[in-house]
Amino acid sequence: MSGRRKDPVAMLMRCGLSIASLPYGAAVALRNRRFDQGKNPAIDCDAVVISVGNLTTGGTGKTPIVARLAKWFREHGIRVAIVSRGYGRGDADQNDEAAELHQRLPDVPHVQDADRVNAARIAVEELESQLILMDDGFQHRRLARQLDLVLIDMTCPFGFGHLLPRGLLREPVSSLRRADAVVLTRCDQVDPAQIDDVTTAIQSAHPGIVIVHCNHRPSGLLRHPHEIVDVDELRGKRVALVCGIGNPDAFRRTVQDVGATVVAIKSLADHAIYDRETMNAIREWIGGCDPVDVIVCTQKDLVKLQTDRIAGKPLVALTIDAEISDFDRLLPMLQQAADESRK
User: Fold this and answer.
1) Model pTM?
2) If you write DSSP's letter for every residue of 75-137 in order, what string do you get?
3) CATH architecture, domain defined by 48-216+323-341
4) N or C: which end of the chain has fewer CB within 10 A?
5) Closest to 206 in 3D by CA, of 162, 176, 230, 182
6) CA distances (Å), 79 to each of 34, 47, 287, in order?
7) How far is residue 56's CA from residue 175's CA, in Å, rounded to a whole number?
8) DSSP labels, 26-44
Protein backbone atom coordinates (compact mmCIF):
# COMPACT_ATOMS: atom_id res chain seq x y z
CA MET A 1 0.00 0.00 0.00
CA SER A 2 2.80 2.44 0.84
CA GLY A 3 4.42 2.06 -2.57
CA ARG A 4 7.88 1.54 -1.09
CA ARG A 5 8.33 -1.81 -2.80
CA LYS A 6 9.15 -1.37 -6.48
CA ASP A 7 9.47 -5.00 -7.58
CA PRO A 8 7.15 -6.36 -10.31
CA VAL A 9 5.07 -8.46 -7.88
CA ALA A 10 4.34 -5.46 -5.65
CA MET A 11 3.52 -3.26 -8.63
CA LEU A 12 1.14 -5.90 -10.01
CA MET A 13 -0.57 -6.21 -6.63
CA ARG A 14 -1.00 -2.44 -6.41
CA CYS A 15 -2.51 -2.44 -9.88
CA GLY A 16 -5.04 -5.09 -8.85
CA LEU A 17 -5.90 -3.24 -5.64
CA SER A 18 -6.36 -0.01 -7.61
CA ILE A 19 -8.89 -1.72 -9.87
CA ALA A 20 -10.72 -3.07 -6.81
CA SER A 21 -10.86 0.48 -5.39
CA LEU A 22 -13.02 1.65 -8.31
CA PRO A 23 -16.28 -0.10 -7.33
CA TYR A 24 -15.63 0.72 -3.68
CA GLY A 25 -15.21 4.41 -4.51
CA ALA A 26 -18.34 4.38 -6.65
CA ALA A 27 -20.37 2.83 -3.81
CA VAL A 28 -19.08 5.40 -1.31
CA ALA A 29 -19.85 8.28 -3.67
CA LEU A 30 -23.38 7.00 -4.33
CA ARG A 31 -24.10 6.54 -0.63
CA ASN A 32 -22.82 10.00 0.28
CA ARG A 33 -24.77 11.57 -2.57
CA ARG A 34 -28.00 9.99 -1.33
CA PHE A 35 -27.44 11.44 2.14
CA ASP A 36 -26.44 14.82 0.71
CA GLN A 37 -29.65 14.92 -1.35
CA GLY A 38 -31.84 13.77 1.54
CA LYS A 39 -32.83 10.50 -0.14
CA ASN A 40 -31.29 8.69 2.85
CA PRO A 41 -32.49 10.81 5.77
CA ALA A 42 -30.44 11.29 8.93
CA ILE A 43 -32.42 10.35 12.05
CA ASP A 44 -32.57 12.63 15.08
CA CYS A 45 -32.31 11.05 18.55
CA ASP A 46 -33.59 14.04 20.59
CA ALA A 47 -30.14 14.76 22.01
CA VAL A 48 -27.06 16.65 20.90
CA VAL A 49 -24.74 14.29 19.00
CA ILE A 50 -21.03 14.82 18.44
CA SER A 51 -19.32 12.43 16.07
CA VAL A 52 -15.63 11.62 16.55
CA GLY A 53 -14.43 9.82 13.44
CA ASN A 54 -11.74 9.57 10.81
CA LEU A 55 -11.11 9.15 7.10
CA THR A 56 -8.93 6.06 7.31
CA THR A 57 -8.98 2.57 8.77
CA GLY A 58 -6.63 1.75 11.59
CA GLY A 59 -5.87 3.59 14.80
CA THR A 60 -5.94 7.38 14.79
CA GLY A 61 -6.03 7.77 18.57
CA LYS A 62 -9.78 8.23 18.99
CA THR A 63 -10.09 6.74 22.48
CA PRO A 64 -8.02 9.40 24.32
CA ILE A 65 -9.87 12.14 22.39
CA VAL A 66 -13.30 10.69 23.23
CA ALA A 67 -12.22 10.44 26.87
CA ARG A 68 -10.99 14.06 26.85
CA LEU A 69 -14.29 15.33 25.44
CA ALA A 70 -16.41 13.21 27.78
CA LYS A 71 -14.51 14.55 30.79
CA TRP A 72 -14.99 18.13 29.60
CA PHE A 73 -18.76 17.71 29.29
CA ARG A 74 -19.03 15.91 32.63
CA GLU A 75 -17.09 18.76 34.27
CA HIS A 76 -19.69 21.14 32.84
CA GLY A 77 -22.59 19.18 34.30
CA ILE A 78 -23.74 17.44 31.09
CA ARG A 79 -25.05 13.88 31.22
CA VAL A 80 -23.00 12.37 28.41
CA ALA A 81 -23.02 8.87 26.93
CA ILE A 82 -20.78 7.20 24.37
CA VAL A 83 -22.23 5.11 21.56
CA SER A 84 -20.25 2.91 19.20
CA ARG A 85 -20.63 -0.02 16.86
CA GLY A 86 -18.86 -2.46 19.16
CA TYR A 87 -16.59 -3.90 16.48
CA GLY A 88 -14.78 -7.07 17.58
CA ARG A 89 -16.80 -7.73 20.74
CA GLY A 90 -18.22 -11.07 19.51
CA ASP A 91 -20.59 -12.49 22.12
CA ALA A 92 -19.27 -10.20 24.86
CA ASP A 93 -21.21 -7.25 26.27
CA GLN A 94 -18.51 -4.82 25.18
CA ASN A 95 -15.34 -4.70 23.13
CA ASP A 96 -11.87 -3.70 24.28
CA GLU A 97 -12.33 0.01 23.51
CA ALA A 98 -15.51 0.15 25.60
CA ALA A 99 -13.74 -1.64 28.46
CA GLU A 100 -10.88 0.86 28.30
CA LEU A 101 -13.28 3.81 28.23
CA HIS A 102 -15.16 2.40 31.22
CA GLN A 103 -11.84 2.15 33.06
CA ARG A 104 -11.07 5.78 32.19
CA LEU A 105 -14.65 7.07 32.65
CA PRO A 106 -16.53 4.92 35.16
CA ASP A 107 -19.37 7.49 35.39
CA VAL A 108 -19.97 7.68 31.61
CA PRO A 109 -22.22 4.95 30.11
CA HIS A 110 -21.19 3.32 26.85
CA VAL A 111 -23.83 1.74 24.59
CA GLN A 112 -22.64 -0.56 21.79
CA ASP A 113 -24.85 -1.52 18.88
CA ALA A 114 -24.17 -1.96 15.17
CA ASP A 115 -27.22 0.28 14.73
CA ARG A 116 -25.94 3.55 16.21
CA VAL A 117 -29.42 5.08 15.95
CA ASN A 118 -30.76 2.38 18.27
CA ALA A 119 -27.80 2.84 20.61
CA ALA A 120 -28.45 6.59 20.80
CA ARG A 121 -32.14 6.01 21.54
CA ILE A 122 -31.21 3.71 24.42
CA ALA A 123 -28.81 6.34 25.76
CA VAL A 124 -31.49 9.04 25.62
CA GLU A 125 -34.61 7.13 26.63
CA GLU A 126 -33.19 4.72 29.21
CA LEU A 127 -30.10 6.52 30.49
CA GLU A 128 -31.49 10.08 30.18
CA SER A 129 -28.35 11.29 28.40
CA GLN A 130 -28.28 14.90 27.25
CA LEU A 131 -25.35 14.53 24.85
CA ILE A 132 -24.07 11.63 22.76
CA LEU A 133 -20.45 11.11 21.74
CA MET A 134 -20.55 8.81 18.70
CA ASP A 135 -17.24 6.97 18.48
CA ASP A 136 -16.07 6.31 14.90
CA GLY A 137 -19.14 8.00 13.45
CA PHE A 138 -18.00 10.02 10.42
CA GLN A 139 -19.16 7.35 7.94
CA HIS A 140 -22.27 6.44 9.98
CA ARG A 141 -24.51 9.14 8.55
CA ARG A 142 -27.87 7.64 9.60
CA LEU A 143 -27.58 9.28 13.03
CA ALA A 144 -27.98 13.05 12.77
CA ARG A 145 -25.27 15.03 14.52
CA GLN A 146 -24.68 18.63 15.49
CA LEU A 147 -20.88 18.43 15.32
CA ASP A 148 -18.52 16.34 13.20
CA LEU A 149 -14.94 16.04 14.44
CA VAL A 150 -12.51 14.16 12.20
CA LEU A 151 -9.19 12.84 13.47
CA ILE A 152 -6.19 12.59 11.16
CA ASP A 153 -3.17 10.62 12.35
CA MET A 154 -0.07 12.55 11.33
CA THR A 155 2.01 9.36 11.13
CA CYS A 156 -0.14 8.21 8.18
CA PRO A 157 -2.49 11.11 7.45
CA PHE A 158 -4.27 10.10 4.26
CA GLY A 159 -3.92 6.32 4.13
CA PHE A 160 -1.23 6.34 1.42
CA GLY A 161 -3.46 8.54 -0.74
CA HIS A 162 -5.81 5.84 -2.02
CA LEU A 163 -9.21 4.41 -1.19
CA LEU A 164 -9.62 0.90 0.16
CA PRO A 165 -8.32 -1.63 -0.70
CA ARG A 166 -5.45 0.10 -2.54
CA GLY A 167 -4.93 2.43 0.43
CA LEU A 168 -6.48 3.00 3.83
CA LEU A 169 -8.96 5.75 2.97
CA ARG A 170 -12.58 4.94 3.78
CA GLU A 171 -13.65 7.87 1.63
CA PRO A 172 -11.92 10.65 -0.32
CA VAL A 173 -10.18 13.56 1.40
CA SER A 174 -12.78 15.80 -0.26
CA SER A 175 -15.32 14.37 2.23
CA LEU A 176 -13.77 16.66 4.83
CA ARG A 177 -16.16 19.32 3.57
CA ARG A 178 -18.74 17.62 5.85
CA ALA A 179 -16.54 18.08 8.91
CA ASP A 180 -16.77 20.94 11.39
CA ALA A 181 -13.25 20.53 12.79
CA VAL A 182 -10.17 18.39 12.24
CA VAL A 183 -7.91 17.14 15.02
CA LEU A 184 -4.37 16.30 13.91
CA THR A 185 -3.15 13.55 16.25
CA ARG A 186 0.40 12.46 17.12
CA CYS A 187 1.80 15.79 15.93
CA ASP A 188 4.85 15.27 18.14
CA GLN A 189 5.93 12.26 16.06
CA VAL A 190 6.42 14.14 12.78
CA ASP A 191 8.26 17.19 11.44
CA PRO A 192 6.51 20.60 11.40
CA ALA A 193 6.84 20.65 7.60
CA GLN A 194 4.65 17.54 7.37
CA ILE A 195 2.02 19.20 9.53
CA ASP A 196 2.06 22.22 7.20
CA ASP A 197 1.60 19.98 4.14
CA VAL A 198 -1.33 18.14 5.68
CA THR A 199 -2.90 21.42 6.84
CA THR A 200 -2.70 22.75 3.28
CA ALA A 201 -4.39 19.61 1.91
CA ILE A 202 -7.19 19.86 4.49
CA GLN A 203 -7.79 23.53 3.77
CA SER A 204 -7.94 22.78 0.05
CA ALA A 205 -10.77 20.32 0.75
CA HIS A 206 -12.53 22.61 3.25
CA PRO A 207 -11.30 26.22 3.34
CA GLY A 208 -11.61 27.83 6.74
CA ILE A 209 -12.19 24.62 8.70
CA VAL A 210 -11.01 24.63 12.32
CA ILE A 211 -7.82 22.58 12.72
CA VAL A 212 -6.33 21.74 16.12
CA HIS A 213 -3.21 19.85 17.09
CA CYS A 214 -2.97 16.96 19.52
CA ASN A 215 -0.12 15.00 21.07
CA HIS A 216 -0.71 11.64 22.71
CA ARG A 217 1.22 11.93 25.96
CA PRO A 218 2.15 8.95 28.14
CA SER A 219 0.54 9.61 31.53
CA GLY A 220 1.59 6.56 33.53
CA LEU A 221 2.01 2.82 33.74
CA LEU A 222 -0.94 0.68 34.73
CA ARG A 223 -0.37 -2.61 36.53
CA HIS A 224 -3.33 -4.95 36.66
CA PRO A 225 -5.75 -4.37 38.14
CA HIS A 226 -5.55 -0.71 39.27
CA GLU A 227 -2.04 0.31 40.31
CA ILE A 228 -0.62 3.38 38.54
CA VAL A 229 3.14 4.03 38.63
CA ASP A 230 5.30 6.74 37.10
CA VAL A 231 6.12 6.34 33.43
CA ASP A 232 9.79 7.09 34.21
CA GLU A 233 10.08 3.53 35.51
CA LEU A 234 10.46 2.48 31.85
CA ARG A 235 13.47 4.73 31.27
CA GLY A 236 16.53 2.65 30.44
CA LYS A 237 14.59 -0.62 30.54
CA ARG A 238 14.70 -3.30 27.84
CA VAL A 239 11.09 -3.94 26.87
CA ALA A 240 9.04 -6.21 24.63
CA LEU A 241 5.82 -4.81 23.24
CA VAL A 242 2.56 -6.74 22.83
CA CYS A 243 -0.32 -4.96 21.14
CA GLY A 244 -3.46 -5.58 19.14
CA ILE A 245 -4.14 -2.09 17.81
CA GLY A 246 -4.49 -0.32 14.49
CA ASN A 247 -1.18 1.58 14.58
CA PRO A 248 1.54 -0.45 16.34
CA ASP A 249 4.35 1.69 14.89
CA ALA A 250 3.03 4.78 16.68
CA PHE A 251 2.87 2.79 19.93
CA ARG A 252 6.47 1.66 19.47
CA ARG A 253 7.64 5.24 18.92
CA THR A 254 5.77 6.41 22.02
CA VAL A 255 7.46 3.75 24.18
CA GLN A 256 10.85 4.67 22.77
CA ASP A 257 10.19 8.35 23.46
CA VAL A 258 9.87 7.68 27.20
CA GLY A 259 13.41 6.27 27.20
CA ALA A 260 12.86 2.52 26.90
CA THR A 261 14.76 0.24 24.54
CA VAL A 262 12.33 -1.81 22.45
CA VAL A 263 13.87 -5.25 22.03
CA ALA A 264 10.96 -6.83 20.12
CA ILE A 265 7.34 -6.21 19.24
CA LYS A 266 4.47 -8.68 18.85
CA SER A 267 1.82 -6.99 16.70
CA LEU A 268 -1.57 -8.69 16.61
CA ALA A 269 -4.66 -7.76 14.63
CA ASP A 270 -6.70 -4.81 15.86
CA HIS A 271 -9.19 -5.97 18.54
CA ALA A 272 -7.24 -9.21 18.92
CA ILE A 273 -8.68 -11.86 21.23
CA TYR A 274 -6.22 -13.18 23.80
CA ASP A 275 -7.39 -16.76 23.84
CA ARG A 276 -5.33 -19.74 25.06
CA GLU A 277 -3.69 -20.33 21.69
CA THR A 278 -2.68 -16.68 21.36
CA MET A 279 -1.31 -16.55 24.91
CA ASN A 280 0.74 -19.71 24.35
CA ALA A 281 2.19 -18.16 21.21
CA ILE A 282 3.05 -14.96 23.10
CA ARG A 283 4.76 -16.91 25.90
CA GLU A 284 6.80 -18.86 23.35
CA TRP A 285 7.71 -15.62 21.56
CA ILE A 286 8.84 -13.95 24.78
CA GLY A 287 10.97 -16.98 25.58
CA GLY A 288 12.76 -16.56 22.25
CA CYS A 289 13.38 -12.82 22.62
CA ASP A 290 16.59 -11.23 23.81
CA PRO A 291 16.47 -10.69 27.59
CA VAL A 292 13.82 -8.11 28.56
CA ASP A 293 13.03 -6.37 31.84
CA VAL A 294 9.33 -5.76 31.29
CA ILE A 295 6.53 -6.34 28.78
CA VAL A 296 4.53 -3.29 27.74
CA CYS A 297 1.06 -3.28 26.17
CA THR A 298 -1.64 -0.69 25.60
CA GLN A 299 -4.47 -0.03 28.02
CA LYS A 300 -6.85 -1.49 25.44
CA ASP A 301 -4.86 -4.74 25.54
CA LEU A 302 -4.58 -4.88 29.33
CA VAL A 303 -8.36 -4.83 29.84
CA LYS A 304 -8.39 -8.15 27.94
CA LEU A 305 -5.16 -9.66 29.27
CA GLN A 306 -6.11 -8.97 32.92
CA THR A 307 -2.79 -10.09 34.35
CA ASP A 308 0.39 -8.49 35.69
CA ARG A 309 2.82 -11.08 34.30
CA ILE A 310 3.39 -13.07 31.12
CA ALA A 311 5.96 -15.85 30.92
CA GLY A 312 7.35 -14.73 34.30
CA LYS A 313 7.97 -11.17 33.11
CA PRO A 314 6.13 -8.15 34.60
CA LEU A 315 3.45 -6.65 32.37
CA VAL A 316 2.38 -3.00 32.38
CA ALA A 317 0.16 -0.90 30.14
CA LEU A 318 1.29 2.53 28.97
CA THR A 319 -1.63 4.89 29.59
CA ILE A 320 -2.06 7.69 27.05
CA ASP A 321 -3.84 11.02 27.42
CA ALA A 322 -4.78 13.46 24.67
CA GLU A 323 -3.06 16.83 24.97
CA ILE A 324 -4.71 19.31 22.59
CA SER A 325 -2.41 22.32 22.48
CA ASP A 326 -5.00 24.67 20.97
CA PHE A 327 -8.08 23.27 22.71
CA ASP A 328 -9.49 26.79 23.01
CA ARG A 329 -10.22 26.72 19.28
CA LEU A 330 -12.74 23.94 19.92
CA LEU A 331 -14.32 25.62 22.93
CA PRO A 332 -16.96 27.70 21.08
CA MET A 333 -18.28 24.54 19.38
CA LEU A 334 -18.24 22.52 22.59
CA GLN A 335 -19.86 25.29 24.60
CA GLN A 336 -22.64 25.63 22.02
CA ALA A 337 -23.20 21.86 22.17
CA ALA A 338 -23.35 22.02 25.97
CA ASP A 339 -25.84 24.90 25.88
CA GLU A 340 -28.08 23.08 23.39
CA SER A 341 -27.99 19.89 25.45
CA ARG A 342 -29.39 21.74 28.48
CA LYS A 343 -32.47 22.95 26.61
Assistant:
1) 0.90
2) HTT--EEEEE--TT-TTSSS-HHHHHHHHH-TTS-EEE-SSHHHHHHHHHHTT--SEEEEET-
3) 3-Layer(aba) Sandwich (3.40)
4) C
5) 176
6) 33, 11, 48
7) 12
8) HHHHHHHHHHHTTSSPPBP
SS (H, E, C) 149-176: EEEEECCCCCHHHCECCCCCECCCHHHH
**CATH code of the domain occupying 218-321:** 3.40.50
Round to whole Å and give the CA distance between 49 and 78: 13
Bridge partners of 49?
Answer: 132
Most confident range, picked from 18-22, 86-90, 97-101, 244-248: 18-22
Vertex 330: Cα angle to 327 and 332 (nearest 5): 125
Intervals of CATH 3.40.50.300 along the chain: 48-216+323-341
